[in-house]
Amino acid sequence: MVKKIRVNLKDRSYNILIGSGDLAGLKNFLKSKRQVVIITDFTVGSLYAKNIQKNLRGFETHVISLPSGEKYKSLSAAAALYDRLINLQIHRDAVIIALGGGVIGDLAGFVAATYMRGVDLIQVPTTLLAMVDASIGGKTAVNHHKGKNLIGVFHQPKLVLIDVDTLRTLPVKELKNGLAEVIKYGTIKDPAILKILEGNPRASAAFWQNLIYRCAKIKAEVVSRDERELTGYRMILNFGHTIGHALEALGGYKKLSHGEAVGLGMLAAAKIAKKKEITNRLQSILTRLKLPTRVNLSANQIIKSLKLDKKVRGGKVRFVLPVKLGRVTIKDNVPESRVISVLREMGCR
Hints:
Elements: E1 3-7, E2 14-19, E3 35-41, H1 42-54, E4 60-66, H2 75-87, E5 95-100, H3 102-114, E6 120-125, H4 128-134, E7 139-144, E8 147-154, E9 159-163, H5 172-188, H6 192-198, H7 205-225, H8 241-250, H9 258-272, H10 276-288, H11 299-306, E10 319-324, E11 327-331, H12 336-345
Parallel strand pairs: 2-9, 3-4, 3-5, 5-6, 6-9
Antiparallel strand pairs: 1-2, 7-8, 10-11
Helix pairs in contact: 2-3, 4-5, 4-7, 5-6, 5-9, 8-9, 8-11, 9-10
């Protein structure tokens, strides 16, 4: 049974559909679109793109595949995609399908937002990380060598179609990458999620459908209330990401995966907030999932990178800090010395 969540944004509202074996029904959501461009990476494309293309008979369908990896979420990769779209004579009434993980979702979304001032986008996430986070909410961006997601635009999809069956082909490392974001939702809004993870669950399709639904429902509610981070409410979704993004950037997007960096960022935030119970719980879950709890980077370099973060306002770094499980607050007055002390406690030099 397909679970449905509505993202309520007036004329930009859309559905998140979470099911099993639903990729074949994608045609039903394309209506009168004449041109369809599937943007994917070589790995995901080899698994799913041909079958989707076969089910889209009657449409002018093109598949554009890229190498995988965070380094391809760049302006140069976007420029290469613009060239392909122009050479294929893709018009403004086309629809772009982002088929893949967070990198593809961000990159294809950014291209959809900017090509001919915007074409329709459907997100078809195939990683747990993208299913619970990156595919929902309309944030699209590419990285700059100075920081993650520094160049971007909001562009809401017309649909997010999640088929949990695609998780069967996902490497264990990538599942753990997504579970870090799942932990985030459990900490900021729904502590029952943490209990589910601690209960040694059987990873069936029904389990994934339920877990993703719980997370996606939180994301949809937050986005519906604060689409463009104008009230500050959406900022709660950045729990773990302030320090996490800095760790990713300093590692050249190679040393730490996004999930590993966010896990470390959440742990650091709990320590900064001096919430011992939450710190211990997060440390236990991260260790159980074999995600890192220590980091070997320069504390001073991390501080420098933090000041380039998009969340900086008036020269002040804003941190999302836990108050208790299920509730967080936003602080812009955390002493730099406190952050450095916590980073060194976690292994930074």
